[in-house]
Design a protein that fits this description.
This protein is an alpha/beta fold. It is built from 6 helices and 5 strands. Helices cover about 45% and strands about 15% of the residues. It has a 5-stranded mixed sheet.
């Protein structure tokens, strides 16, 4: 009995090490799949920020690729990716935002300071739209095909190599299919 108990910790360690080794070898370990890929985008909320156009579901299926970004003024990664959103907008891409779990005054102040890259913004202070889209935390960004179906989901800030190697190729693929 004593020998079995003495062998148990090394065996548990080896099993755990094997599990970690297998997990590190998986592809796309940081990517959570979305059940909406290939499906029509869920509806957006109807809340708006004063002075900024809203977004309707018809806007998402208007025939052109649309980027839907979930953000908040209190979110540091959202602030880090904001220049990327501005650059995408300056490229002529249709970028819309969903401001989630934020205060109206804070959202407006942030857009006033940093610039507004969005063609329209849905104001969702309670986070209901976030739940409908399966968003866990900001920032999260979706690429929609011209018919309003979800082509890709990107979790986290769109910055650096992660943006270049994961988001941009999916965006180019969606644009080529347009």
């Amino acid at each position: 009995m004593g020998r079995i108990l003495m062998a148990l910790p090394p065996l548990l360690f080896l099993a755990l090490a094997a599990m970690f080794w297998w997990g590190m070898g998986r592809e796309n370990v940081g990517q959570l799949p979305s059940t909406f890929i290939g499906q029509p985008a869920p509806p957006l909320g109807t809340g708006v920020l004063p002075g900024i156009p809203g977004v309707t579901s018809a806007d998402l299926a208007g025939g052109k690729v649309t980027i839907v970004n979930f953000w908040a003024s209190w979110c540091p990664p959202c602030r880090a990716e904001h220049p990327t959103l501005k650059a995408l907008s300056e490229e002529g891409l249709h970028v819309v935002g969903v401001n989630m779990m934020d205060r109206e005054a804070d959202a407006l102040a942030f857009l006033g300071e940093a610039g507004n890259p969005f063609a329209g913004v849905v104001f969702d202070p309670r986070g209901k739209t976030r739940l409908d889209w399966g968003v866990t935390a900001p920032p999260e960004t979706f690429i929609l095909n011209g018919d309003g179906t979800v082509a890709y989901r990107f979790i986290g800030p769109m910055v650096g190599d992660d943006y270049q190697q994961r988001f941009r190729p999916e965006l180019e693929k969606a644009l080529a299919a347009q």
